[in-house]
Design goal:
The chain is an all-alpha fold. The chain has one domain (2-136). The chain is 75% helix and 0% strand. It contains six helices and no strands. Helix 1 packs parallel to helix 5 (116-127), helix 2 (31-61) crosses helix 5 and helix 3 runs antiparallel to helix 4. Mean pLDDT is 84; it is low at 131-138.
Length: 138
């Protein structure tokens, strides 16, 4: 279990770093989320994605009060637009930390539903971080 948790956290850090390098400042935090939405929505539906994101946001809003807890049945696009606004207005230095914590919580919830190994495979596929993660699962 710890091996999977470590791998999942490594994937999150790498996706956030890739977002920093690839995207403009105003959308760099959203790149991992956009890629997750594209890969997960066909599997769990947009409603499933929104439900997981909503739960993760509510859990993290206790730690980051400025993070908007979404309303039920918002589209993934609306959720990410709200997240972008929240992160842009976040207190200095906390946006990246909050985004990483939100991704961690989201992926923990996903792993609780579908298992760590499948979650890691989906993260590797979504974030294009090579086949090594898939090989590690065997």
């Amino acid at each position: 279990m710890i091996k999977h948790d470590d791998r999942r956290l490594q994937l999150i850090r790498a996706a956030l770093a890739a977002g920093q390098a690839e995207a403009q400042a105003d959308v760099r935090h959203l790149l991992p989320w956009q890629r997750l939405t594209i890969h997960l929505s066909p599997l769990i539906g947009e409603t499933g994605f929104s439900a997981l994101y909503g739960r993760a946001a509510r859990l993290q809003s206790a730690r980051h009060a400025w993070l908007t807890a979404p309303q039920a049945s918002q589209s993934a696009e609306a959720l990410l637009a709200t997240l972008q606004g929240d992160l842009m207005m976040a207190p200095h230095g906390t946006a990246a930390e909050a985004n990483a914590a939100l991704l961690d919580t989201f992926t923990q919830l996903l792993a609780g539903l579908i298992g760590e190994a499948l979650t890691i495979r989906l993260l590797v596929a979504a974030w294009g971080q090579g086949r090594d993660g898939a090989e590690e699962q065997k």
